[in-house]
Input
Amino acid sequence: MPSRVTQGMLNTQLLRNLNSNLNRMDNLQNQLATGRKINKPSDDPVGISFSMRYRSELSANDQYKKNVDATTSWLEYSDTMLDQAGTVLQRARELAVSGANGTNSEESYKAFKNEVDQLYSQMISIGNSQFNGKYVFNGQITDQKPYPDDADAMNATPEQGEIRFEIGLGVRISANVTGTQVFGEAGDETNIYQVLKTLSEGLDEQDSEKVSSALGLLDERMSKFLSVRADVGAKINRIELAQNRLEDIDLNVQSLKSKIEDADMAEVITNLKMDENVYQASLSAGTKLIMPSLMDYLR
Output
């Protein structure tokens, strides 16, 4: 026999269906207001786990991009200082070539010496260059001058530590070059400060042989200097590639995150309108279903 359906059962089922319809409308209205299809974990437990993972990846990627920016700034500033040092070296070489000619007058030697002394001072200034208040050529000890502002610069021993930044998962790169790499070790005959001092002495003594010797040492230092600068240029190129890669990763993860989180507004509006129509139809049918009663027939 078919089960007996009572008026109370009909009323209960009607209210249950109306409430279910209202819940769907409430969910769609939230999606329409926020633009997101996941507004609480219960909306999509699986989706929220993917969303959290994508957000974590984007956060890590943002930090990598900040590290890339910091590395780029440091390397580009170092390269600018190396460019200035290269200009000083080139001028010192020109003066050494001129001074090696034994036909110069006493006044010419004196003028050459004075300019070399100025180049020496300028090179000390470059060696003590600061970027954002940090000495760029003193390794990890960025709050101390690597070179004293006096004649003893050739005996200075800059700190050798590397300043490294993580620009990807497990990928770290050194952003600095040390004073020793650029200007030479203390006591080394090709130490640029020692070479400039020797050149100055040779010009002061009008000793063309001593000047020629200084010229040879200067060429050795320039060769090493150019090697360091080439390494800095290679790092800058590598950083640019890393930056492009991070931008690509950011776009890809943002796209995946959007597919999980963002609502399809056209679909949401269509479903909301459909549920509103269903709700209105349910109310209309419900009024006809609930109104009749036994008392209505007894009248």
